[in-house]
Design brief:
With 470 residues, this protein is of the alpha/beta class. It has a domain of 85 residues. It has 15 helices and 17 strands. The strands form four sheets. Strands 4-12-11-10-7-5-6 form a seven-stranded mixed beta sheet, with helices on both faces. A four-stranded mixed beta sheet has the order 1-2-3-15. A hairpin with a 2-residue loop joins β13 and β14. α4 crosses α12, α8 packs parallel to α9 and α13 packs parallel to α15. The longest helix is centred in the last third of the chain and has 18 residues. The radius of gyration is 23 Å and the shape is globular. The N and C termini lie close together (10 Å). Bound molecules: pyridoxal-5'-phosphate (PLP). Pyridoxal-5'-phosphate binds next to α5.
Length: 470
């Protein structure tokens, strides 16, 4: 079963207030237990109503099966909590898979999107809007990118990486040995084993997991995989560049995640990342850091590459971002560091109808503003540590250790029972995700509080030992 829970709805702010007792359509009390008075280990089975089952049956009739059967049908959220259509409340430690940075229905987010919708929701790229321009400037500033850096906006993580890969292709054409008119060979793009970059054809070509890549092969040619974290594999790939029968085309780019999120929240060794930077510099190859999951405060810095314990202190040439940037509105993009690289994207060479959409840009500005104003980078670091320590101190023998940084954590389990553990947690009011058979992923909203973490840990601590393996 696939368990991506990536469709968190933003409900009406007033209706979503847990303090308000409302009555659901079926005459049930919609908000059954307030955060303050609830026992975090009360099982949800006895609270479930019939609406969920009915709507899930309807879902299956009209959706293709790529997401499997969703776990619940959700109704509305507020802060770190979300409620299903039967009125069951969940503490959300997944936040739409690292998307809802400032929680559900944040009043400022709701106000911004309403106001922007009343002004202009979409223009086309024949025109620009102020939020789009301000957002690009803000992201360049937050990334500390040099003068001459430029942003491309898309609508998802995969599209962000498509843009980066296209830029790498254009860069590759400028490299000696790649010019086809001179009998050159196509430049290559190196991607890492266990990496995940999205499901569009280009991004999928650089995505490791055979089960999702193989059904679509042949994909984009000249993308090659190297062993994540292994310098020999890295050096050998570059060393294959050369003339003659056996030589291959030059390396245009290496694309990598500093924490391999979908592979089970696995940070790369920062010395390895620095070695990638060095060999890219020596060969005029680009280093593309995919921060779709790690970016926008998730690891406790605006971008994960700004953490020396992840990047070894090096700066990428291209950073891609998406998930958390607009706090729940679909948006992604990339920053090309420096003028020379940015100049490769000339009019007409890439684009998308919705790129830089003002609704997305305005709520992204609000999301970044709230993160800045409310000190949420520090909160991500502090709550992340509290969560890590709480999990390890919980005494649950199912937990071996915790990986990750800030509020992107993976609990290594002693047995491959992550699905059953996720289901148990869900039934007890906590949303987490089995990112691998032996790993639970936690990625709560950056606004998560000390009390939320205590509550979440108290549920995790009680996950039983006798769960079936996946
Ligand atoms: C590191 C990384 N890159 C790219 C993607 C693809 O993003 P999207 O699903 O928005 O296309 C993801 C999604 O999980 C991701 O984690």
């Amino acid at each position: 079963m696939i368990v991506d829970i990536n469709h968190g709805d933003v409900g009406d702010a007033a209706a979503a207030d847990p303090a308000i007792e409302t009555t659901g359509e079926a005459g049930q009390t919609a908000l059954r237990h307030g955060a303050q008075d609830r026992d975090p280990v009360v099982a949800h089975e006895d609270l479930e109503g019939e609406q969920d089952k009915e709507w899930l049956a309807r879902y299956e009739q009209v959706h293709v099966g790529v997401f499997g059967t969703p776990l619940r049908v959700m109704d509305h959220g507020k802060g770190t909590r979300i409620w299903d259509i039967d009125g069951n409340e969940y503490l959300d430690f997944l936040a739409g898979i690292a998307v809802n940075s400032i929680g559900y229905a944040h009043p400022q987010w709701v106000r911004t999107i309403s106001e922007q919708a009343g002004l202009v929701a979409h223009t086309s790229n024949y025109f620009a809007t102020k939020p789009q321009i301000e957002l690009a400037a803000k992201l360049i500033e937050l990334a500390g990118a040099p003068d001459g850096s430029h942003v491309y906006f898309g609508n998802s993580g995969a599209e962000a990486n498509e843009a980066a890969l296209k830029l790498a292709k254009l860069h590759g054409r400028t490299l000696p040995g790649a010019a086809s008119s001179l009998g050159g060979k196509p430049a290559r793009i190196l991607a890492l084993t266990n990496g995940f970059h999205g499901r569009t054809m280009g991004a999928l070509s650089a995505t490791w997991k055979p089960a999702i890549r193989k059904p679509y092969e042949p994909l984009v040619p000249s993308v090659q995989f190297i062993e994540a974290g292994d310098r020999v594999s890295l050096f050998e790939a570059f060393a294959r560049t050369g003339k003659g029968k056996y030589g291959e085309g030059p390396v245009a780019a290496v694309i990598l995640e500093l924490i391999q999120g979908e592979a089970g929240v696995r940070p790369l060794d920062p010395d390895y990342v620095a070695a990638v930077r060095n060999i890219c510099d020596a060969n005029n190859a680009l280093m593309i850091v995919d921060e779709v999951q790690t970016g926008i405060g998730r690891t406790g810095q605006w971008f994960a590459f700004q953490r020396e314990d992840l990047s070894g202190g090096v700066t990428p040439d291209v950073v891609t971002f998406a998930k958390g940037v607009a706090g729940g509105f679909p948006m992604g993009g990339m920053i090309a560091f420096g003028q020379k690289l940015s100049d490769l994207f000339t009019p007409g060479i890439h684009g998308s109808t919705f790129a830089g959409n003002p609704l997305g840009a305005s709520v992204a500005l609000t999301t970044l503003g709230v993160i800045e104003r409310d000190g949420l980078l520090a909160n991500a670091r502090e709550r992340g540590e509290q969560l890590r320590e709480g999990i390890m101190a919980s005494g649950n023998p199912l937990f071996e250790y915790v990986r990750g940084r800030g509020l992107l954590l993976g609990i290594q389990l002693t047995r491959p029972c992550a699905h059953a553990a996720m289901n148990w947690a869900l039934e007890h009011g906590l949303i987490v995700n089995p990112v691998a058979p032996d790993t639970l992923r936690l990625a709560p909203a950056l606004i998560v509080s000390e009390a939320d973490v205590r509550e979440g840990v108290s549920i995790l601590a009680r996950i039983p030992q006798d769960l079936p393996n996946d």
